[in-house]
Amino acid sequence: MERIDQIKKEFFEHASQVSMPEQLENLRVRFLGRKGKVTEAFSLIKDIAPEIRPRFGSGLNQLKKELEAHYEELKQRLEDSAENEDMLDVTLPGRKTFPGRKHPLLKIADEIKDIFHSFGFTIEDGPEIETDHYNFEALNIPKSHPARAMQDTLYITEDVVLRTHTSPVQIRVMEERKPPIRMIAPGRVYRRDTPDATHSPFFHQVEGLVVGESVTFADLKGVIQAFAHRMFGKDARVRFRPSFFPFTEPSAEYDVWFNGRWMEISGAGMVHPNVFRAVGIDPGKFSGYAFGMGIDRVAMLKYDIRDIRLFFDNDMRFLRQF
Ligand code: PHE
To answer: Of 22, 71, 108, 299, which sits with the fewest C-beta atoms within 10 Å of its C-beta?
Structure first.
């Protein structure tokens, strides 16, 4: 029985030193292996007095169980710590984080703001949910006017609409401020259009309005030309085509040529006298020009994007390119 206690003591002494798999294997071979101390002790049984043989036998069996259990525990502990070391492997390459970035439309809107800000324009804001009055009436588009059909919208009530353009911000600013006015107003607008490569039920515009005592169409052309050069570079060209808007007279649309193609960017014109009257500005004394530029169009031209829906799908493969 002393022999049993001795083996046990030796085993635990050695076991307490084990910190590597090879040491653990040595321990196993020395005590539990085919020629190990426990196996060796079993071979003593036959030489032992029959009276104490059962006690010795069961003592040995118990010893064997106890040592095996401890061996298994040590083995598990070594495996666990090996896993922990993997987790702390400082030689692994760092995990890449993906920093957020601006949506291409926001980037273009920021550039447009910077450019006009440098021309001395203020930056204004207006509601996306508008009244019929600001979206249509005050802009010289009465209820029965066919121009309403061109900008058919989503009505919230009979009098409240999702704005179809940023032009109502012109009215809001002119109601509050006397000329001279030189402002832009970027924002989201809505139309009842079926989505395709060039149409989306919502898109973005930046309104421009300049009012003063002798503002002319030549000023409009000069500012737009300067804008195009800043946005697209010196090779960009601008062309104006006659058009119609109820709130400007004369009216035009302009296209920008860049990167081998013309793109219609905007409507524009000289502020209609009725619009001035609606906000209490004397059309005999003041004149002004306005434009409503498509931010999405500017972005499509600048980045050579052929389908407007890409801006709103939020596919990371697209967005990551900017
Ligand atoms: N509001 C017009 C549109 O959305 C664009 C425009 C703005 C035209 C200002 C003339 C002057 O189509």
So the answer is: 22
